[in-house]
Amino acid sequence: MTHAVAKVQGKTIAETDKSEVVEGNIYFPPSSVDKSMISNSSTTSTCPWKGTASYYNLKVDGTEIKDAAWYYPDPKEKATNIKDYVAFYKTKVDISTS
């Protein structure tokens, strides 16, 4: 399994050996995400086969990054493997794998 790390400004937000990859995005298990660095956003979006996504803002060293991550709290049947898993926008968060 691939080791994945998500960082902003050199600070680790999430790290895991148990990620899921869907449509080229790495989804981190909820337990691997540093909850002190995220806050709920009111933003949502809809995917035809995954369902409705909810978003998180990130806060790192006093800087807030809006809607930098998303997750599916109640995914459709084909996406149950990523329920509550968190994915990050590659343009807002540095994601590496090894």
How would you characterize this protein structure?
It is a single chain. The chain is an all-beta fold and 98 residues long. It is built from no helices and 9 strands. The protein has strands spanning 4-8, 11-16, 20-22, 25-28, 38-47, 51-60, 63-71, 86-88, 94-97. The strands form 2 sheets. A 6-stranded antiparallel β-sheet has the order 3-4-8-7-6-5, with no helix packed on it. It has a 3-stranded antiparallel β-sheet with strand order 2-1-9, with no helix packed on it. A hairpin with a 3-residue loop joins strand 5 and strand 6. The protein is globular, with a radius of gyration of 13 Å. The termini are close together. The model has no long low-confidence stretch (mean pLDDT 96).
Instruction: Give the CA-CA distance, first to last residue.
Output: 9 Å
Largest sheet: 6 strands, antiparallel
From the alpha carbons, calculate the radius of gyration and give it in angstroms: 13 Å
Q: Percent helix among the residues? A: under 10%
For the largest sheet, list the strands in their spatial order.
Answer: 3-4-8-7-6-5
Q: Regions with pLDDT < 50 over 5+ consecutive residues?
A: none
Order of helices and strands: EEEEEEEEE
**What number is the mean pLDDT?**
96
Instruction: Give the tally of β-strands.
Output: 9
